Amino acid sequence: MNNAAPVRVGIGPLSVSEVVAVARRGAPIELDPDALAAVAESRDRIDRLAGDERPHYGISTGFGALATTYIAASRRTTLQQSLVRSHAAGSGAEVEREVVRALMLLRLSTLLTGRTGIRPATAEAYAGLLNAGITPIAREYGSLGCSGDLAPLSHCALALMGEGEVRDANDEPMPAAEALAAAGLAPVVLAEKEGLALINGTDGMLGQLCLAIDDLEGLMRSADVSAALAVDGLMGTDTAYAADLQALRPQLGQADSAANLRALLEGSEIMASHRGPEDTRVQDAYSLRCAPQVHGGARDTIAHARLVAERELASAVDNPVVTLDGRVMSNGNFHGAPVAYVLDFLAIVVADVASMSERRIDRMLDPNRNHGLPAFLAHDAGVDSGLMIAQYTAAGIVSDLKRLAVPASVDSIPSSAMQEDHVSMGWHAARKLRSAVDGLTRVLAIEVLTATRAIDLRAPLETAPALRRVVATVRTSVEGPGPDRYLSPEIEAVVELVRGGAVLDAAASALEPATRLI
């Protein structure tokens, strides 16, 4: 039984957190009755046009380059079904369950705007799939991010028709007809315009943007924690993070990151031990001193991405649309450019935050730069290699992240006999960002693993109270310094502590409410 609070669709735009709740936590969906009434009203307009002898795109014509072909009334159900079947042409690996659920919720949200001309019963049936935990199997390739995420959405529409493949609530693969029958759901026979309404939106790329924003907002706070651990492990200073220095450059994200670093390092015995005049270092290396600037710039970019996502969540993306005054009009709102750009932008900042983290990892392992720690933080350097190859792993991930930062949205391959002669590639931008988010998580985890060992090696000096909580949390899964041992499981254990928020929660639990991590 799912105990998540229900998400009501149809009263204003969805929020990012509501998308995440349905996609990741299986929150049930409720449809707003007023929205369903608006859906019925716009459907009435479509029904009237369906009886018109003049051709109307998506209602009585073919699609794309076949838009000038008139379709007789007796063949329009076949037209809609053929559209979905032919467009369910994805290939490759299965798309993740949470992504499919997110794009389905967002398509449903657009359907409930009353601008698509779909029947209320069809919208209710689509919600039924989500509430039953039935997840259509969509494939990795098939969307160009223009005319909507066509192939992934078509795989979902195909399941609504009782065709294709799905996974049930227990994640078991099976034919859609079998899953619908087991859930007490009937396949939908599509009417005029409905096939087009079900597949013509930016929902796949937008869903992945919402999920990435949710991940990255937490990871940026985790990056502040891992950086603070490294700064203390390297006997760095927090003087560059002073509020008055940050105020000289009033970038919002930078100020938040610096405030986090100050709070996390407050009360460190390690830092107090080298504050006196005997310390001749004037300033730390950039990877320590400039962490607020890089982390802050990333935060500001995420904030911009959230703004774009919120605007898209308030949109009715379909073609044609039923306007507020009842016209049925072709438009270009399905073009994914606005979403594609910020997906690419996020991949750039992810790569840079990870790159800075890897530089701190390397610094902690180098006896020429780590201020008295053993080479590679090894127990018996020479016999033991310590964390030498953990840095290789981080470096390899960072190299991949730099490739993933190459924009997808600058590419365009014309399609549909040159009718769709410029496309956004937003789906591909979203897919590579998902890989990038995973890579950043892993690099931050390796930094946490490395820095907690460095801090242990500073004993008897202790780190700050907030960071001591992090060290203790890591030690529940990973042993402290000692002879070499099988390292891969330890890295994976810390990856899960970062991904699941345990590292962040541990640090925050030691801070007063007024100084909680921002």
Task: Explain how this protein is built.
This protein is mainly α. Helices cover 54% and strands 5% of the residues. The chain is built from 20 helices and 9 strands. It has helices at residues 16-25, 33-50, 76-87, 97-111, 120-131, 150-160, 176-182, 194-199, 203-233, 243-247, 252-265, 269-272, 286-289, 291-313, 337-365, 388-404, 426-456, 465-475, 488-499, 502-509, and strands at 7-9, 29-31, 91-94, 135-136, 139-141, 165-167, 173-175, 321-322, 328-329. The strands form 4 sheets. A 3-stranded antiparallel beta sheet has the order 4-6-7. Helix 4 packs across helix 9 (203-233), helix 9 (203-233) packs antiparallel against helix 14 (291-313) and helix 16 packs antiparallel against helix 17. It is an enzyme of class 4 (lyase).
Q: TL;DR?
A:
By secondary structure, this protein is mostly helical. It is built from 20 helices and nine strands. Belongs to the PAL/histidase family.
Task: Please describe the topology of this protein.
Blueprint: E1 7-9, H1 16-25, E2 29-31, H2 33-50, H3 76-87, E3 91-94, H4 97-111, H5 120-131, E4 135-136, E5 139-141, H6 150-160, E6 165-167, E7 173-175, H7 176-182, H8 194-199, H9 203-233, H10 243-247, H11 252-265, H12 269-272, H13 286-289, H14 291-313, E8 321-322, E9 328-329, H15 337-365, H16 388-404, H17 426-456, H18 465-475, H19 488-499, H20 502-509
Parallel strand pairs: 1-2
Antiparallel strand pairs: 3-5, 4-6, 6-7, 8-9
Helix pairs in contact: 1-4, 1-9, 3-6, 4-5, 4-9, 9-11, 9-14, 9-15, 9-17, 11-14, 14-15, 15-16, 15-17, 16-17, 17-19, 18-20
